[in-house]
Design a protein that fits this description.
286 residues, two-stranded antiparallel ribbon, globular, TIM Barrel, alpha/beta
Amino acid sequence: MQQRRIGDRTVSAIGLGAMPLSTKTDRPSREDAVAVVHAALDAGVTLIDTADAYAADESEFGHNESLVAEALASYGGDTSSVLVATKGGHTRRGTDWELDGSPAYLRRACEDSLRRLGADAIGLYQFHRPDPETPWEESMGALRQLVDDGLMRMAGISNADIAQIDVARSIVGPALASVQNQFSPGWRFSADELAHCAAHGLAFIPWSPFGGVSAAGSLDSSAPAFAEVAEELGVSVYRVTLAWHLAQSEVVVPIPGASRPSSIQDSAAAADLQLTPEQLARLDAA
């Protein structure tokens, strides 16, 4: 599989992203979820992205991190090359989503994620979303301190604009490795941030590369140009969409979610799908 760089790590060009589902009944069973992670590893995926807040509600905070740790521990092959990325800064009150970007909270959240993942240090720890109640500079200082104290090896930020990216670069320094923003065929508002990351050697990790859980199922109709190219190539519209992401820049590493092994196997194959200049032009203009 084609590979990309995140900081000083080489990872697969396609990662596996964990998506928060709204209830405990609309997600795969734990056994099925572990099977998806194993299928991703079998397909050569070496980046798994999760977050402590990816849970149905407050009572099971950390659910997805524990599941990833279980899947890696039960995998029969070598997982030493797998980079697990997680996020902190979102909290849950019942089923509601709230924010806490204070240094004290981020340290506590990072320590809890370390425990759940069973790691000595988190490979890539990302600040989940700006907190209006905490100055951005304070949150970035907290990330820098966590790196300096050895709790994480690389830092990332998520849902950040260009000004916030530059502040993070100045405070976190070389340990800042990635920016994770929403980006998809129907949501291209982070194109400037993507270009800024490319100019400064930061990985750009588009979340919801298919447009989100509710939109992914209708990608054929909502992105007709992508469906047309998929028909020409005899592959899924999802594979074309991920190949388009990769063609945007060498720093892009999309993280599609998957609820079935076949889905992540199809997504992983996008790393080796070549789109022609004419096809890319059509997709860029769509």
